[in-house]
Amino acid sequence: MELLQHSFSDLYINSNKDFYISDEKYQNSLKRVEPDDKEEFYTRLLAIAHKTSSYSMNYKGTFFRVENVMSVNGELYCLRRMPLTIPSIHNLNFDHRFVQYMLSLSTQSGLIIWGGATGSGKTTAISSLLAEYLNLEGGFAYTIEDPAEMPLEGEYQSFNGSIGFCKQTEVQNDNWRDPLKSALRSKPRYILIGEIRTPDAACECLRASISGHLVLTTIHASSITDALSSLVKYASFSMSESSAYDILSRGILTIVKQDLVGTENHRRPRIETLFANPDLNKGCSVRSIIRSGKLNLATSIEMQAARMSQSLPLFQ
Q1: How far is CA 59 from CA 10, 84, 135, in A?
Q2: Cα(59)–Cα(73) distance, rounded to whole angstroms?
Q3: pLDDT, mean of each 10-residue run, the chain (316 residues)
Q4: What domains can you pick out in the chain, each with its CATH number?
Q5: Backbone angle region of 215, left / alpha / beta, with phi > 0 → left and psi within -120 to 50 → alpha
Q6: Among 189, 192, 212, which residue's Cα sits nearest to residue 201?
Q7: Closest CA to 286 of 313, 314, 310, 312
C-alpha cells in the first residue's frame, strides 16, 4: 500500500526514516507504517528541503505542510496532509446559525480572526470561509501564507453570475511586510494572512483591516482573549500598545476560538465566538472593551452565545 492510500492527517518521520501516523483508535496514539513508496516519498522530501523550517511540498498531487526540526538524534519531519479540495464550510459541522452569520459578513470590511492550537482545524475553516465568499460574491482574493496550505488559487464561478479569483502567495525569508504591501496595491476584496506570528504580519494585518478590505487570519491561541492579546503583543513591537488596541477595536468583526474533539476520523469543531457590531455608526460594547485594553469579555461572549442559540439578533 502506498502512503497516500493510508488514512491520516499528520505524518512524522524521524532520522531513521521511520514513518508514524495515527492508529485511529485513540485521539493521540500513533502507529508505524511501511508504505511501498517510502523511499520515493523520502527522496522527494529531501529534494525540496528549504533553508527555513516551514514549507509546502507537493507529492503526487497532494500538498503537505512541512515542519523540519532538529531533534537530539537528527532531523525530524512533521507533515500535515492537506485536502485535495477545500471542503464547504457547510460541511464542517458548525452550527448553521454561526455559518449564516459568518457568511453575512462577506460584504463587510474589517478583520476576522480564527484562533486555536496546532491541528485544531482553524486553517481549514478560514480557507473554507474565504472560498465561500468567492462563491457568493466573486471578486479578487489575495493570500499571504508561510507556507501555502489549502488549494485556494484559481477561478470561482459565483452564485450571482460574476467571477471570483484568488491569488495565493508565499512569504519569502520571513518578510511579511512586502507581500502585504503588494496585496494592498493589487486592490483585493479579500486578504487572507496565513498565520500571525511576526510583528510585521500583525501590524500590516491591523492596518489592512481598517483600509476597506475584509481580512481573514489565524493565530495560535488558547482563548479569545489570548488571540486578541497575542495579536496586540506582536503589533506592539512596531507601534504602541494603545495604538494597536485602538486599530484592533476599529477593525475587528469576529474572533473564533476553535478546538477539535473526538478521534482522528471522527473529529468535530468546538468553538467559542465573539462578534463586534459591523455597523461602525452604532455603539458596540465589544469594540469599547477592546479599545480600553482591559479584555474583560466573558460576559459579552456568554450573552452573544445565548442570543445566537435562540436565533436572536446579536445587535440591537
Answers
A1: 15, 11, 28
A2: 26
A3: 90 93 77 94 82 76 84 85 87 95 95 91 94 94 85 88 89 77 84 89 90 94 95 93 96 95 77 95 93 94 95 89
A4: 3-81 (3.30.450.90), 89-309 (3.40.50.300)
A5: beta
A6: 192
A7: 314
